[in-house]
Amino acid sequence: MTTPTVLKPRSGRAVGDRLARSARAGEGIGMPSEQVPAWLEARRRAVGAQVRRIPFAELDQWSFEPGSSNLRHHSGRFFTVEGLDVRGPQSSWQQPIIVQPEIGILGILAKEFDGVLHFLMQAKMEPGNPNLVQLSPTVQATRSNYTKAHGGTNVRYLEHFLQAGPHQVITDVLQSEHGSWFYRKRNRNLIVEVSGDVPLLGEDFGWFTLGQLKALLQQDNVVNMDARTVLASAPLGVDGQQALSSDTEVMSWFTGERSRLTLDAHLRPLDGIEGWLRDSHSIHRGDHRFFRVVAVAVEGAGREVAGWSQPLIEPVAPGVVGFAWRSFGGVGHVLVNARAEGGFLDTAELGPTVQCVPANYTRLPASERPRFLDLFENPDAGRIRYSAMHSEEGGRFLNAESRYLIVETDESSTPAQAPPGYRWVTPAQLSLLAGHSRYVNVQARSLLSVLR
Amino acid sequence: MTTPTVLKPRSGRAVGDRLARSARAGEGIGMPSEQVPAWLEARRRAVGAQVRRIPFAELDQWSFEPGSSNLRHHSGRFFTVEGLDVRGPQSSWQQPIIVQPEIGILGILAKEFDGVLHFLMQAKMEPGNPNLVQLSPTVQATRSNYTKAHGGTNVRYLEHFLQAGPHQVITDVLQSEHGSWFYRKRNRNLIVEVSGDVPLLGEDFGWFTLGQLKALLQQDNVVNMDARTVLASAPLGVDGQQALSSDTEVMSWFTGERSRLTLDAHLRPLDGIEGWLRDSHSIHRGDHRFFRVVAVAVEGAGREVAGWSQPLIEPVAPGVVGFAWRSFGGVGHVLVNARAEGGFLDTAELGPTVQCVPANYTRLPASERPRFLDLFENPDAGRIRYSAMHSEEGGRFLNAESRYLIVETDESSTPAQAPPGYRWVTPAQLSLLAGHSRYVNVQARSLLSVLR
């Protein structure tokens, strides 16, 4: 007895075309885009959470482990804050880092209404978000979440991402997160299309077209980091077939950069890492650069549990994340930078042209400032193709805001023949790489989400 | 002043078509294929090397480090043999493992003669090869090699792979090696096409078409592992556009497997790893399964240095590496297995249907034998699509021979709906994944090199 065999096309224009159609749909079957800010505000009020800074001693269920001083939850789950020792060719340093080995799920449910793909987004509260509630993926869950480590409620819609079913996967890829703050973290970025009925399981969910999400990405602090990275992982609707470098040349350049850039990073006890001090409320550098580890209590929230406290990482000042953009022969390109970050599993990934917190460099000589930073500090209005404030994952980072920019530059500031460590690629090339693990870092993926 | 901009196609059929043309060329401008065995034999005599097993105490420049008992070279270079502690959901174990953090270069130079791509191969002696001399890439060099850690001679042709030049890169990707024997090893697999004159720098080099290399891959122990993995990394000349699963479905399945399969592996001192014993001549398991660490002296060789001694890993018996092959709707598919191996950087990669040393299981109940192994032990001659003995890297492994097989199977033994952990993919799909790091393991890449 032979199972009848049905072959299918390995890939098709179909999904890309359908994503492009959704991107052209300025409104959908759900809430109009202009009502989203009021909805998020209403959700903020409904959640009614207060986030209050507390001393480490007031953390509930979290403590510094005797011996290592690593900060951990009594259950051994969620994450730990440990020490990292990084040795590189140019510099070596130690720092605190979040260790969270389990793979979380960032999943967006998609469904066609009136022939247009819509995406189910959640208005979700995260304690580190400057405005608490932002548009998030349908599901944003660590394994601890959905195996109920905090005795919480079920994660709504999770079953669509865990079980095989009559689904069509649009994207499914393990992506890295912040290599400066997370040790080898990765999340599964998923978009799954369903054909059956999907009821709205609460007032915190709504369906949006890609066109609506694109418009919302123009606003400050509306679309959260998890939503941005999942959207960036989806195939680009339009893919140009011409570029300054062939795909093989880009790959070969990246392989060379990954071979060349070496950082030797090892976990060590948080206790006594060089250059860092701990007081009652924070772990910070003696010179107050980079970031600090702090603790917050979340009160009165209607989230998975009634209230909780946890550590967060808080950068010392807002960041700048920017792509230089140029048109070559009528085709838009962005300038990527191969970056080694201490927490990356495989040393280097492609980041934006600039990714830094400028305040960290104010007291240093100009020669030590990040290359190309000046292009993003006071760009001419006419050269700004994109500008919005976004924050990083509010479950781990407190007020980690950056200005995300795409700025048109020219041959004098950013030559076509890019300097070592940099390369011009098209959004289509970046999107192709973002379909695989560990090529495009989370900041570059955020910018890629607005390039489609 | 603006640099004139020349856009190029991101990818083209050109390289694939030219590789396919070379694959159809049964002979080339160099040595006829039938003369290769005699040439390798002549090179074997010319090199005149003897490989002799020695006790560890006779190793020159290598010793067991006080404290850890890790086996290392006095220079601190080349590689070390350390201990690995592996904890998995089904089983946990400890083992010796080779640690070699530096990224080596496996490079094949390509050049067109009479409109057909030829590849520059070297008849290279490696002490662990059962027949010492095999066809190798143009360059096969660790960083220690080419920075002359053993005070050796220059690596011929290396400059083509280190310097940018008027070259066309055909493939350039970091690939993993044996996850059971190497800790997070990767090599840069390169094929670089040159247009200028390339003199033959010795009697150990020759130009071959892909068709010749395909024919030589049918013979036992002629094409070495490094050559096989580089050839497997090149784009497949012919790519079918139909398959049982779409590329996105294959990716999603693999992402799920990589999320599901977890192995926690940590280096530890070689001293006192559980289940292993050290005597004067070897480090081996008490039950003599899997492999042993041994030492050899290489004498009278005309290689980079006149003679040397080194440790090698020696499997206890020959292995079996096999793909089940089926045609679905007229399109050939192979059955890949998502495998976690202790030394992989990212937990899991796609391996062949079967990859094991059967002797390790002879004393175990049938239920503990590797799945599908019986299909490869005595297959009907009519079902064998490929069969040859190949050995693994002779610079690290002693007599590590396996029978490489591709066997046609049917619905009763290998259903179209593959069991968990397995999936049918086309050679074109496997080739696409082999163009990126850490998807296809080295054994599956060896088989992919014969599937083109």
TrEMBL record, chains A, B:
Pfam family, one: Hexose_dehydrat
InterPro entries: EvaA-like, EvaA-like_sf
Organism: Kineosporia babensis
Start and end residues of each dTDP-4-dehydro-6-deoxy-alpha-D-glucopyranose 2,3-dehydratase domain: 34-233, 248-451
Superkingdom of origin organism: Bacteria
Protein name: NDP-hexose 2,3-dehydratase family protein
GO MF, any single term: lyase activity
Membrane-spanning residues: none
